Amino acid sequence: MKKLLIIIMVVAMLAVGCTTNNEVTNEAITEVATDVVQNESNVSEGSGDSAEETVEVMTTYVDALNREITIETKPEKVICLYGSFADLWYEAGGELVGIIESSTLPEPAVDLPKVGKMSTPNIEAILALEPDLVIIRAGYAKQEELLNIFETSHINVYAADYNSFDETMTTFKNFCYINGNDAVYEEKSQPLVDGIKTLTDVDHDFSYLLLFASSKSISAKDDNITAGIIDNMGGKNIAANYSIADEESKQFSFEKILELDPTYIFVQTMGSVEDAKARLEEDVMSNPAWASLTAVQEGRFIYLPKELFLYKPNMKYLDAYQYISDILEGNN
């Protein structure tokens, strides 16, 4: 009986820990605990060894589509339809049997069978691998459209989407618990939390402009992961605090930027860095007023590395914060 109570307590704790909003109803805890009691009763009729092996600890989580899912056993055949999620899944101690095509896959996933692209997943290739869990990207219609097929095929789905450190850690926690590695979450997350707190406790106060450059266009950003990191380091994004772009054309106003004269100008690039720089040169830097900006004159016009600021930083969040901190301290 003592063993039974321990199992119930562990399951209840996991159920609480794995919801994204850290809340779970008493009914949910009771339901999970009842299932464990039933499992214990069923296996107690057999031998002691078989009883030990068949009792399963369930994992209940709420994903980015607000779907509450219970996984009864650790998934053994997992497919991931987004490269950054695969990286976080591996950090949680998970394994994969299939992955989408991408030029930025984590090393363990490079040689895995490919199941289409992120925007066009191949359902036949996915089902052929007989997965028991598929990780999709919430907000991508072509992936969400597959939910009914997965449910009909009795395949669990985790719909993920995270755009801040807290959201990343919630997803990482769920990934760890699904893999039965709750200790890994504490081991890997706490140093990030402590390190980021140390860096953000330093008193910085500066304005900045964050540009997003590709071969096709240049835009000002105020609502992505990079902006969140710089804001937490004491930055004030002029694109967020002032109207610097025309609502119809989405083209930012040079006159307004000159007026606000940000302390730093950061640039994220997508695709070919050289092509993005060429577009920036043509659309922005060719303007004679560009050279009069203080950030340009004083060497605070900075291209940010893709691995930390274009792709989701995942467990490299502290590195991203440290990179900005070194810039602010004059060490980068």
What does this structure look like?
With 332 residues, this protein is an alpha/beta fold. The protein has three domains: 56 residues, no CATH class; 120 residues, 3-Layer(aba) Sandwich (Rossmann fold); 127 residues, Nitrogenase molybdenum iron protein domain (Rossmann fold, 3-Layer(aba) Sandwich). It is 45% helix and 16% strand. It contains 16 helices and twelve strands. The chain has a five-stranded parallel β-sheet. Helix 8 packs antiparallel against helix 9 and helix 9 packs parallel to helix 16. The protein is globular and about 60 Å long. The N terminus is likely disordered.
CATH fold description of the largest domain? Rossmann fold
For the record, the CATH class of the largest domain is: Alpha Beta
Report the CATH superfamily of the largest domain: Nitrogenase molybdenum iron protein domain
Shape: globular
* Percent helix: 40-55%
Structure summarized in a few sentences:
The protein is of the alpha/beta class.
Write the layout of secondary structure elements.
Elements: H1 2-17, H2 26-43, H3 48-54, E1 59-62, E2 68-71, E3 78-80, H4 83-91, E4 98-101, E5 114-117, H5 123-128, E6 133-137, H6 141-144, H7 147-152, E7 156-160, H8 165-178, H9 182-200, E8 206-213, E9 218-220, H10 225-232, E10 235-237, H11 238-241, H12 254-260, E11 264-269, H13 273-285, H14 294-297, E12 301-303, H15 306-309, H16 317-328
Keywords:
332 residues; alpha/beta; Rossmann fold; 3 domains; five-stranded parallel sheet; five-stranded mixed sheet; disordered N terminus
